[in-house]
Amino acid sequence: MAAPLGRDTLPEHWSYGVLRDGRVFFINDETRITSWLHPRSGEPVNSGQMIRSDLPRGWEEGFTDEGASYFIK
Q1: Which residues in the chain come in under a pLDDT of 50?
Q2: pLDDT tens digits along 17-37
Q3: DSSP string, 4-57
Q4: Helix (H) or strand (E) segment spanning residue 61
Q5: CA-to-CA dists, residue 42 to 20, 54, 71, angstroms
């Protein structure tokens, strides 16, 4: 599992953003290069919640730390 999100887990000059669909991206604030992979672990990170187009309106999918999905209304 990738490192948890948080400024203290990112190298210096890195920050992150979360898209509306829950995907997390990383930004090197010096070079302005972005990546889908965590700069320390090299793994993608899930924000813990995603909006899926196949769910009924108002529902979102969340994930536990163990990777199990659950649904939120």
Answers
A1: 1-4, 7
A2: 887 777 888 999 999 999 989
A3: PSSGGGSPTTEEEEE-TTSBEEEEETTT--EESB-TTT-SB-B-SEE--TTSPT
A4: strand 60-63
A5: 22, 29, 28
